[in-house]
Amino acid sequence: MTTKNPIRKSSLLHRHLLIPAILTCAMVLSSASTGAQTISKAGKLYEDALIRFDKKDLPGAIIQLKNAIQADPNMLQVHALLGKVLIQNGEVAAAEVAILEAMRLGVARAELVVPLAQSFIEQGKQQQIFDDPRFNPAGLPSQVQAQLLVMRAGAYADLGDMRNALKSVDEAKTLDPRSASPLLAEVAIRIRNRQFKEATEAADRAIMLAPDLADAIYKKGSVQHVAGDLPSALAAYDKALNLEPGHNDARISRIGLLMDLGRTADAKVDIAELKTRAPGDPRAAYLQALIAERENKPAEAQAALREVTELLDPVPMSFIRYRPQILMLNGLAHFGLNQREKAKLYLEGVYRAQNGSSASKVLARIYLDQKDSSKAIDVLENYLRAQPRDGQALTMLANAHMAAGRYAKAAALATEALQTRDSPVFRTALGMSLIGSGKLEAGYAELEATLKRDPQQISAATALVSSYLRAGQSAKAVAIIDNLIKQQPANAGFLNLMGIAQGQSGNVPKARAAFEQAIKLDDSLLLAKVNLARLEIAARSYDSASARLNGVLKVDSRNPDAMYEMAVIADRQGKKEEALRWLKRANDFGRPGELRWGLALVEFHLGKGNALDAMEAARNLLPKAPEDLLVLLAYARSQLANGDKPAAKSTLATASRFAEYSAAPQVEVAALQLRANDVGGAAYSLGKALSSQPDYLEANILMAEVELLQNEPQKSTQRARNIIALHPKRAVGYRLLGDVTLASGQIAGATQHYRRAHEVEPSTDSVLRLIRVLATQDGGKPALQLAEQWLKGKPGDLVVRRALADGYAQTAQLAPARQTYETILAATPNDAAVLNNLANVLSRMKDKSAVKVAERGVANAPGNARYLDTLGWILFLDGQEDRALQILRDARLREPGNPEIRYHLAAVLAKSGRKGEARAEVDAALASGVGFESVAAARALQQQIK
Description:
The protein is mostly helical. Helix 13 (248-260) packs antiparallel against helix 14, helix 16 (298-312) crosses helix 18 (324-336) and helix 31 packs antiparallel against helix 32 (576-589). The longest helix is centred in the N-terminal third of the chain and has 19 residues, at 36-54. The radius of gyration is 34 Å and the shape is globular.
C-alpha cells in the first residue's frame, strides 16, 4: 500500500555541428527504443494524462502515466509528470521514486529539483535538503533558485534554524521580487518566532503582489488569529475560502475560530464540508472529537479520536517528525484514548520540535504517571522558559520536585598525551601517514631518510616503492626493489613488486618473468597471478586473463583485485552492467578503509556519465578518508559532474591545503578549480606548485592560461616566452603565445604563433588550433586546405578528419561533408557526434535516410539532449509530428536552458494545436537571453500564436 502524506499544504545545420572535434562520443549504457509504434502508444497515453492532470483528475492521470511506463519505461517525460502528480495526490514517497527515475533518465535538475525537495520535506528528510548536492541552488535558473530557497527556508524552520530560514527567504525575495511565495514563507517563520509585526508586514506585501491569492489572504488571517484579532481573522478565512473553497488549511483555521467563538453549529457545517473535500484529513476527525466532548457525547468523541489514530498511525514517523501539529494531534488522540505509551511517542516528537508547546504539560503528566520525575522536570522547566506564568505547569513542576530532587549530570573529558621517539619504525609510520594524507613530498623525505640511516628497514622500502609507483617514478622503484631482492632473493613478494615496477616502466618481458618467478616461489601468492592477468588484459588476451582470474576467485571468492580486473575485462567487451556488478563486489569485499575500489567506482560512473551515482560513491568514500587527496579530488569531480561548482570549489580548496607544495597534485587540483570557475583558487594552487618546482612545465603551462583568464596578458606572454627558452623544441610555448594574441583579437599574430607551434612539434592539437584560426579567414578555405593536406600524410587522424567534415558542412559543401562523415563512420560506426552531424547534412540534402542516421546517433548517446533535438526536428520536417513531439519533450526536459530546443518544441506544439504550451516554450526561448540560430523563426512563431 502506498503511504500518503496526510497533510500538505530554421536552418537544419544548426549548432549541433559545432561540437569540438577533440570530443569522443559517450559510451552507450542503454539503447532507447525509437520505434514509431512504441512512442506513439506511450505518447498518446502521456498526452491523455496531461489533459487529466490539467482537469485535476489525479487518479486518472496516474493510471494513464503508469500505462505509458508499461508501454515505454524509458520515456522520461512520463516519469517527470508522474512525480508531480503523485505529490499533488499525497503519495510523496512514490513521487520521490518517480522523480529520481526521471532524473536518472536525463531530466535536467532544474525541471524537478523543487518537487523533489517537496517530496523529501514531506517525508521528513529535511536535513537531506542541505546535505544532498542536488538541492544546491547554485547553477539553477533564478526563478527555480527562488522556489528552492523557499523550500530550504521551510526545512531550516523545521530544524529550528530560524536565522538561516529567514536568510533563505531574503535570498529568494532578491532573486524573484515579484513572487509572493517567499513572503508567505516568511509569514510562517515569523509566526513561529512570535514576530507578529514582521509577519503582518510580510503578509501585506504578499497580498499587494497577489491580491487574489487565497494562500496570501489565509496567511494574513493566521497572523491576525494568533495576535488575537479574531473578527479580522475570521473575515480573512472567509475571503480565502471564497477565492479557493478547497483551501483546507483556511477551513481548519476557521473551524477552530468558530469553536472559540461558540459558533458550534457553523463549525459543524465546515467540518462536514472538510470531510467531504478531504476525507483522509485527521484534523477534521479531531475537531469532531472536541465538539463531541463539549456536547458530552463520550462515545462519539472516542470514535472520532480512534479515526484520528487510524489515519495517522500507519504514517511513518519519519514523515511527520518535523510536523509538530500532526504529532500533537495523534499524541493527544492517543492520550484521550488512554494509550499513554503511544501518546508519549508522538508528544516527545512535539517536545523535540517545540519545547514551549502546551503539549509539554501532557507529556510531563505521562512521565509523572510513569514515575519518571527527572524527565518531567526537564520538560516542564523548558516549557516554563517560554511560558513563565503558567500556573498549572508550575504546580506540576513542584509535584515533580517533591517526588524526586533535581540532579545534573556532570561529565569530564580526559586528555591523552602523545609522545614521540626518533626510531626507524616510527618514522616509517609517520612517512606512510603523511603520504596517505596527501602530503607526498614530506612523506617521501621521511621514508628516504629512514632508508638512508637503515637500509634494512623493509617496511620503509616497500612503502617508498609503492609511493614511487603511484607517482610514476618506476626507475627509482626498480632500484630500491633490486636492493631488496639482493637481501632476500627467495622473497616472492619482492619479485611481485619488481614485476609491477617493470610493467610500469614498459618492460613487459621482465615484468612477466618476475611475476612467474614469484608464483614459482609461492603458488599461494594470488596477487602475482592477478598481475599476470593484468598483463594479459593489456595485450587484449581477455579469455586467458578471465581464466586466470577465475582460478584466483576459486581459491578466494572474495578477492577484490580479481573482481576489479574482471570488471575491466567486462567494460572493454562492452558489458557495462556486468562491469558495474564486479566493481561493486570489489568495493563490498575490500578491506575496511580500502579506498581503491571506491575510487574506481567513482571513475566508472563519471566515465559513463552517471553523475548522481558517482556522487553517491564519492560521498561513501569521504567518511573513510576525509583528508585523502585522491578522495577529495574524486569528490570534487563528482560535484562538477553534478553541476555543483560552489561545492566543488570548497572541496578543492581543502584539497589544495592537503596537497601542500607538491607540484603534480597541485596542478591536478588547479585544473579542476578552473572547471569550477575558481580562477583565483587555481592561481593559488599553481603558486604553491611553482614555489617548490619553479620550472615544472605543466604548472607553468596552466599558470600562463590562468594569467590570461585573469586579464594579465603581459604575465602570460612572459611565461610563454620562458617556456620557449626552456623548451624550444616543444610547441606549447608558441601555442600559449597564440592564445594570448588571439585573446587580444590579433588574428594574424595568433595565426603566426600557431603556425610556428605546428612547425616545431606537429601534432593533432597543433593542426587543430591552426585550422580553427584559419577558419575565420577567406571563408574558411585555408582551414580546409590545411586539413586536407594534413590528412594526406596522416589519413588515420579521425579528429582532424572530423574537423574537415565540420568545415565542409559549415561552408555548405554538403556532398564532401557527407562523404567525409561517412569515412569516419566506417572506422567508428557508433560515433554519436558524427552520426548527429551527418543526419543534419542529409536532412539539408533532402535525403530520407537522415531519420535513420539521427536515430543511430540517439541510440549511441540516448541521454544527449542535442542529438534528441536533431532527431525530433528532422522527424517534424519529415511529417512525423507525433514522434517529433515526444522526442522534443524529452530533449527539452534534459536541457531546459537550450533555447533552440525550446523553439523546436514550440513549433511542433503549435502545429499540433497546443498553442498554450507552444506560447510558453517560445516565450521561454526568447526570454533566455541566449543567442540561438533560429531566433528569427522563434520571433515569427511568437507573433503567429499570440
